[in-house]
Design goal:
With 111 residues, the chain is an alpha+beta fold. The chain contains 3 helices and 5 strands, in the order ββαβββαα. A hairpin with a 4-residue loop joins β4 and β5.
């Protein structure tokens, strides 16, 4: 028996009856297709996890808070704001708007 979309071929000649052999081959084919689907899902989940975690290097900075210069830099956006005090007090609107715009653009680009 050949599964046309994937090209997986299964043959079984254990029984004397052709119908029993076909039924057994279908069970084996179903199991192989299930294993293939599960492996693809595991690979996809693993890839998503790797893209979220990163390597932990110093070069993977997200944001730098520079107190002597009263500066906040978001390295993902390339955005530098010279008002650290107001950001620490909770005035995050400009930073959040830029992040929202950046992630929307990334989502549109990945489509």
């Amino acid at each position: 028996i050949t599964h046309l979309p994937t090209g997986i071929v299964v043959s079984c000649q254990d029984e004397k009856s052709q119908h029993k052999n076909k039924a057994k081959a279908l069970k084996v084919l179903r199991a192989r297709l299930w294993d293939k689907m599960m492996e693809e899902q595991r690979a996809q989940i693993s890839e998503e996890r790797k893209s979220q975690v990163g390597t932990g290097d110093r070069s993977e900075r997200i944001r730098t808070y520079n107190f002597p210069q009263n500066r906040v830099t978001d390295h993902r956006l390339g955005l530098t704001l010279h008002r650290l005090d107001s950001i620490l007090e909770g005035d995050l609107n400009e930073l959040l708007d830029a992040l929202h715009t950046h992630f929307q653009a990334e989502a549109l680009k990945s489509r």
